[in-house]
Amino acid sequence: MADVHTKEQRRFNMQQIKGKNTKPEMLVRKYLHAQGFRYKLHDKTLPGKPDLVLPKYKTVIFIHGCFWHGHRNCKYFIVPKTRTEWWTDKINKNIANDLKAMKLLKKDGWKIITIWECKLKPVKLQQALTALVKKLS
Main role (predicted)? Predict the structure, then answer.
């Protein structure tokens, strides 16, 4: 199946996808800050560069996009119909990198919390954020 966009349109669309300061990440950050939690952002010294690091609680938080991190059985994770093999390889590498980083963090004694993008949709947002604070307290 051919792509419905030109190469220029596809390139522009892909360039608009951010890796940091995404909407789901900002929702979590604002909520935690309002609850009195303080954190570091994207600590490059830790494996996997966690989105949020709460040193006081020895906890890291990863906020994963369902598509980019291969959230199984999620309606937001759909393998594209074009370049399927390439996308499958890319997503599988992301999953492998996530597992490797989590293994190293656990070995160093870090508590790991992963929040999926789909859990931060308006219907489930408050429930997810309340559960997050309970895990931290």
Answer: May nick specific sequences that contain T:G mispairs resulting from m5C-deamination.
* Contacts (Cβ under 8 Å, ≥6 apart) of 113: 59, 60, 61, 62, 132, 135, 136
pLDDT at 123: 86
Q: What is the DSSP letter of 119?
A: G
**Do β-strands 40-41 and 111-116 pair in parallel, antiparallel, or remain unpaired?**
unpaired
Give the domain CATH number at 43: 3.40.960.10
> For the whole model, what pTM was predicted?
0.85
Quick one: which of 50, 54, 63, 65 has its CA closest to 105? 50
Look at the chain and report how many structural domains it folds into: 1
Residue 68 and residue 88: Cα distance in Å, rounded? 10
